[in-house]
Description:
By secondary structure, the protein is mainly alpha-helical. 70% of the residues lie in helices and 0% in strands. The protein has helices spanning 2-26, 44-63, 68-89, 111-135, 138-157. Helix 2 runs antiparallel to helix 4 and helix 3 packs antiparallel against helix 5. Residues 97-103 have low confidence and may be disordered.
Amino acid sequence: MSDSVHTRRRILTATGAIVAAATLAGCGLFDDEPEPEPAPDPLQPILDEALALAAAYDLAIQAQATLAEQLTPLAEDHRAHAAALATLIGAVLPSGAAAPVASAAPPAGSADETLAQLRKSEQAAQTTAVAACLAAPAGRAALVGSIAACRATHASALR
Length: 159
């Protein structure tokens, strides 16, 4: 009788060890593959555009100092949008807050050409923001809708 109990114990112990190993293998403990990177936030392009627009305004001000009074508040709006979006999506803003286009050359041409170029950029960015607003969940749509409206206002102010 003691031989059958001993054998039964061994079988139960071995079975328990196999089940435990299978469970650990199933939970990923033994996986060597790294976790895939999370998908970028759908609002990241809106954040990138806000930074690019702020940088474009800064470059335009450098090229056309006479437009500084008109363009500075618009650039500040885009920096505020970038800060709000970064907070919402948990992104870290680059130092200088205008890094994406900072290496570009200031726009060439007259003040009117500069304004036309900025207006075109605002209109394109406004279209992107409207599309993002329509796709965003309610908690995000208010901010993105506000940004889209502001971009439309900027385009109008640049006429």
